[in-house]
């Protein structure tokens, strides 16, 4: 019996030795490619602004870079149809991935979808996926039917994101939609607009940090199982898209066309600080960039004191 087992093990080793290394690598790489501006990108690929083919070296100007499930947009811009991910219904996306994707924002980026009934960013098609957005940069997505669409869940950790849908055609236009699971915003500055600003038809919307501005001709934020904001955050709302903001009342949620959520401010040395603000030693006004010396920094309800000193009334 032992000889038989040993023989089987030796046979398995021989078979594995005959498989090309590239094939074994393909087995290990389960995340798959991502499409940016209609161009397929694999691990280690760069895509320069305006390019139709990838490269393995960093371009001198703006670019997209893909590696190990993370797509970095660095001063990248694109306008066009992008990739057709659904040939039956004719849907396109300027960025498409059918696997979990992390989007890292660096500098100023823009994506403009020109095809009708299509998406700016689409993650998930055959199965439920997750899109995470992070970084210190910005992204302006303009699309027809939906700005950012995920069949799965969305988590925003940082970045300045503007997602606007202009024409849903026979459907509703949606700034950001999460089909199937939840939307969680932990940081950054998120602005969405469409017939629905933020649409979560089968899940919940949770705001744990950052700033959110949702505007919808029909509804600002539409959810299924719940809508919550971190304790202490300010929620204001209006029953018109351009009306004066007033106190948010949960019972009136469905009537609101605009909802604005901001984190509470904090005072340091008598200076009011908002989310993302730095305050240098002896300064009387905040700034958005890190000072060279000591400073205070406020983000998502956490105040960081780094070699900061103050003496006075406050």
**Major β-sheet annotation:** 16 strands, mixed
Helix content estimate: under 10%
Q: Count the strands?
A: 30
Number of helices: 2
Look at the structure and give the mean pLDDT: 89
Low-pLDDT parts are: 1-6, 8-30
Structural class, please? mainly beta
Distance between the termini: 83 Å
What's the overall geometry? Answer: globular
Strand content: over 45%
Radius of gyration, in Å, reads: 23 Å
Quick summary:
This protein is mainly beta and about 325 residues long. It has helices at about 1-20, 20-30; strands spanning about 35, 40, 45-50, 65, 70-75, 75-80, 85, 90-95, 100-105, 110-115, 120-125, 130-135, 140-145, 145-150, 150-155, 160-165, 175-180, 185, 190-200, 205, 210-225, 225-230, 235-240, 245, 260, 265-270, 270-275, 275-280, 295-300, 300-305.
Explain how this protein is built.
The N terminus is likely disordered. The chain is mainly β. The chain has a 16-stranded mixed beta sheet that branches. Strands 3-4-5-9-12-15-18-20-22 form a nine-stranded mixed beta sheet, with no helix packed on it. Strands 28-29-30 form a three-stranded antiparallel beta sheet, with no helix packed on it. It starts with a helix and ends in an 8-residue tail after the last strand. Strand 26 and strand 27 form a beta hairpin. The protein is built from two helices and 30 strands. The chain is globular, with a radius of gyration of 23 Å.
């Amino acid at each position: 019996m032992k000889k038989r087992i040993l023989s089987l093990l030796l046979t398995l080793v021989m078979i594995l030795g005959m498989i090309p290394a590239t094939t074994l690598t393909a087995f290990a790489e389960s995340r798959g490619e991502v499409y940016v501006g209609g161009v397929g990108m694999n691990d280690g690929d760069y895509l320069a602004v305006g390019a139709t083919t990838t490269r393995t070296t960093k371009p001198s100007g703006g670019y997209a870079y893909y590696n190990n499930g993370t797509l970095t947009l660095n001063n990248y811009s694109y306008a066009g149809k992008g990739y057709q991910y659904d040939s039956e219904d004719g849907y396109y996306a300027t960025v498409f991935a059918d696997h979990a994707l992390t989007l890292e924002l660096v500098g100023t980026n823009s994506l403009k979808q020109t095809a009708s009934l299509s998406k700016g960013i689409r993650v998930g098609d055959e199965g439920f996926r997750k899109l995470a957005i992070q970084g210190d940069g910005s992204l302006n997505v303009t699309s027809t039917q939906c700005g950012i669409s995920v069949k799965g869940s969305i988590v925003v950790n940082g970045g300045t994101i503007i997602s606007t849908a202009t024409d849903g055609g026979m459907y509703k236009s949606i700034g950001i939609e999460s089909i199937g699971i939840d939307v969680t915003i932990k940081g950054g500055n998120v602005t969405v607009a469409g017939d629905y600003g933020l649409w979560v038809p089968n899940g919940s919307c949770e705001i744990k940090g950052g700033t959110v501005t949702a505007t919808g001709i029909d509804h600002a934020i539409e959810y299924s199982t719940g809508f919550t904001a971190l304790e202490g955050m300010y929620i204001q709302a209006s029953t018109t898209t351009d009306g004066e903001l007033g106190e948010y009342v949960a019972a009136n949620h469905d009537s609101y066309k605009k909802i604005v959520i901001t984190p509470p401010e904090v005072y340091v040395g008598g200076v009011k600080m908002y989310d993302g603000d730095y305050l240098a030693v002896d300064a009387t006004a905040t700034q958005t960039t890190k000072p060279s010396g000591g400073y205070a920094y406020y983000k998502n309800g956490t105040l960081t004191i780094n070699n900061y000193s103050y003496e006075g009334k406050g």
